[in-house]
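Hey L., structure's done. Input below.
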Amino acid sequence: MNKLTSLFLGTVLSSSMLPGWAADPPKPYGAVPTPAQVNWQRMEFYGFIHFGLNTFTGREWGYGDENPKIFNPTDFNASDIVSTFKKGGMKGMIYTAKHHDGFCAWPTKSTDHNITKSPWKNGKGDVVKEFAQACKKHGIKFGTYLSPWDRNNADYGKEGYLDVYYKQIRELLTNYGPVFEIWFDGANGGDGYYGGAREKRNIGDAEKYYNFEKIVEMIRKIQPNCIIWGAGHYGDARWGGSEKGHVNYPHWSTVALNGGGGGTGKRGGERWVPAEGDTTINHSGWFWHQGQASRVKSPEELMQVWFDSVGRGANLILNVAADKTGKLDPADVKSLLEFKELRDKLYARDYAQGATVTASQTRGNDKKFAPSNMTDGNMETYWAVEDDNLTPSAFITLPKPATFDVIRLREQIRLGQRVDSFNIDALINGKWVCIDNEGKTIGNQVMRRLNRPITTQKLRLRITGSQATPCISEFSLFRQPAGAVRPSIFRRGDNLIIIADGKNKILYTTDGSEPKEGSSVYSQGAKFAESGTVKARCQFSNGKLGPVSQARFGISKTGWKVKNATSGNAAAAIDDNPETSWFAKAETPQSFTVDMGRPYQVSSFSYLPRQDGKTSGMTDKYQFEVSPDGKTWTKAAEGEFSNLRANPIEQSVNLRNVNEPVRYFRFTGTGSLDGNSASAAEINVFGAPAGK
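Output:
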C-alpha cells in the first residue's frame, strides 16, 4: 500500500466518525414493545396484595355467598403497607379490588355486593382509594386486579353480566388516577353462588364471552399507558407458566398472533407480550391464613425465584397478603426486607464497569454503536454491527482481575429480540476457556449463574446465533452474596431431623418460641411426636446466632393404620413422603379411613395434592369426618380446594363441630380435576393427645 492510498483510507475511516458519515441504526426486527411495555419491563419487580372476604373466611376462592359484613379490618393502614412494599424494593403494587367471590372493595355502582355493605368505616370505606393514594404518596405505581369470574353475580355467564363488568373496569380506571397494570385472571367459570342458583356455569371461550377485544379498546381510550395482563391474546403481558414465580428459559417476549407460546413465548412471534412471574412470599397461598408464619419463604428461596424470573427477562410480582386486622404478617415483612438486602448485595458492584471493550466489528465504525456501550450503565445505548453479521464477538478487559459468578446481558429491546444463542469465555492461565456454553436468547435481560466463581481480567462474548444483527446494550458481572446458614427441618415418624451446612451447633424449640442461648441443642435421634411448630437456628463458633427456620407438623403418624379404603393404596397418603400418593381407581366419591392409634383433640387437617407436576385426579372437593370409635361419625369439614391446577400447595382446613376427642378420621374426595378419581399425597391432622 502506497502513502497516497494509506492517506485516502485514513481520511475515509476518520470521516466515518463524523456526523455527516454517521451510520444508520439497525431497523427494528419483528415484533417490538410499545414505550409503555418498555417502561413496564424496566420496573422488574412489584407487589401483589390479596385482601378481601377470603382474608376473613380462610379460603383462597370464595364461593360468592359470603356476607360483606365479615370484612371489618381493625388496624388497616394502606400507607404502612405501601411503605413496606417500597422498602422491599417494589416499584409498584397491584391490589385485588375484586376476586372470584365478586366482592368489590370500593363503593361501586355496578353491584350491591361491595364495601358499602361492610361495617368497616360505617360503610364509607374504599380500600382501592386508600391504596391508590398511598402509592402516590410513597412514589410507587398503583395497579389493580379485577377478576372476570364472579361467583356472586346472578347474571354471570349471561350477556347481562358484561354490562356489570365493563362498568367496574371503567370505575377503576377513571376514579383512582394512573393505573400501571390491570390484571384479568384466567380462572373462569365453575361452581358458584350466582345469586342463589348454586350451580356450575360454563362460559365456553372466555375471550369471546368477555369480548376482550372490546375491553382492550375501552382501556386504551381511558388509560393508554396501562399494561393489560391476560385478556386472551389481546393483552400486553402474559402468565409466566407457574405460580411459583419460575419462568422457562429461553424466554421469548414474543408470542403468536393467537396468543400461543405459553410461558416460554415463541421465537419470531408476531406480538410482543412478555411474561410475568407471579408467586407468594408465603407457602400458605395468596390470601392470609391463620398460622402461616411457619410457611414463609426464606430470602434465599426468593433469590432463586428472582433469578428464575427477572433473571430470565420476565417481571416478578410477589404477593404479600394482609391479615384480618389489615396488617402484613411480621414474618412475611422480615423475609421481604431481607430479600431486598440480598439483592442490594448482589448489585452492589458491577465488575465490568470501567472495562475496556473492543469487538470484531462496529457498525459503520461509528462510536454511537461502539462495544463500550455495553458497560456504560445506560440501557439505551448499545453495541451493533453490520446487518449481515449475525455472529460477532466482543472482548472485555476489566480494570483488574475480578471474581464473579453472575453475568447479565441485555438486548436493546426497542429494536426487537434477536439473539438465539451465545457463549462466554474467560482467559484463564493464558487460554480461552468457555465458562458458559448454554446461553440462549437474551431479550430484556438474562442473568447467567455460573457453577462456581471465576477469577479473570479478560472475557469474550461470542454471539453464536441471531435472527438479525445483534444489538447488545449491557454486559455486567456480579458476585452472588453468601446466603445465610438456615437449618432445614424434617420429620420421619417420631424422628426430628434438622440439617445445616457446616459443623455449627443447632439450637431448637418445639413450642413455637424463638431458639436462644440455653435452648435445646439438636442431636441425632431427637424425637417430636406432637403437633406443633419447630424452630431452629445455628449458633456459630463466635457465639452469634443465625436466622431462624421453622416448620409446622401435624400429629405424628407413627402407629397410624388405614382401616378401610374404597380403592387404591391409601397408606401412601400417610407415609410422610410427598413423592408417593394415594390414587383411587374409580370415579369420585372415593375415601379412606385411618385409625390414629389413640384419641386426640383435633383442630384442623391439611391436604397435599400430588407433587409430580400432573393434575389428573387432584381432589378439589372434599369431606372430612371424625369418629371416637370408628362407628359414629361427625362431618367436621366440607368444601373445595381452590386453584390447585396453578398452585398445588398444601391446603389447611379448620375443623368444626369437634368438641370431644376422636381416634378415627375419614377423608373423602367428592370431586377432582379433569373429571378423574381422587388422590392425595399426604393428609396431616393437627391437635393434641386427649387429656393434654
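Residues 600 and 690 are 5 Å apart (CA to CA). The radius of gyration is 28 Å.

-- N.
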